[in-house]
Amino acid sequence: MKIPAIKRLVESQTLASLLEAEEALLDERQPDFEVEGEDEGEKLTHVFAAIFVLNHIQDHGSEFKDALREYTKKVRVSIS
User: Fold this and answer.
1) pLDDT tens across 42-66, in order?
2) Which of 9, 57, 71, 80 is 20 to 30 A (C-alpha) from 47?
3) Cβ atoms < 10 Å from Cβ of 42
4) CA–CA gap between residue 11 and residue 28 (Å, rounded)
5) What are phi and psi of 63, to 5 degrees?
6) Cα 20 to chain centroid, rounded
7) Which domain of life is it from (predicted)?
8) pLDDT class for 79, splitting at 50, 70, 90?
9) Cα 37–7–61 angle (5° rounding)?
10) What is the domain extent for residue 63?
């Protein structure tokens, strides 16, 4: 997971386009825009993270860094 890649997606894509990219990656297709990542798994991780961050920003009126912090907390809990 690379923070700069997530930030670029949040700043350049809409929630709808990210959801379409998620579906494309899950169906083993290329999204309509470039998603950074070394493989499909990392690309999907970046898209998932960007979706979470955008939703958190909209739902809580938070800033990018705070929404990203919430996402990383969830990741840490899930792998511990």
Assistant:
1) 999 999 999 999 999 999 999 999 9
2) 80
3) 15
4) 24
5) -90, 165
6) 12
7) Bacteria
8) confident
9) 140
10) 3-79
Tokens encoding 32: 């309509």
52: number of CA atoms within 13 Å, CB side? 18
Query: Helix 15-26 to helix 40-60 angle, to the nearest 10 degrees?
Result: 150
Q: Which residue has the tokens 């690379």?
A: 2
Q: How many domains does the chain have?
A: 1
45 Cβ partners below 8 Å, 6+ apart? 1, 37
* Cβ contacts of 7 within 8 Å, gap of 6 or more: 64, 68
Rounded CA-CA distance 1/70 in Å is: 15
CA distance 62 to 54: 10
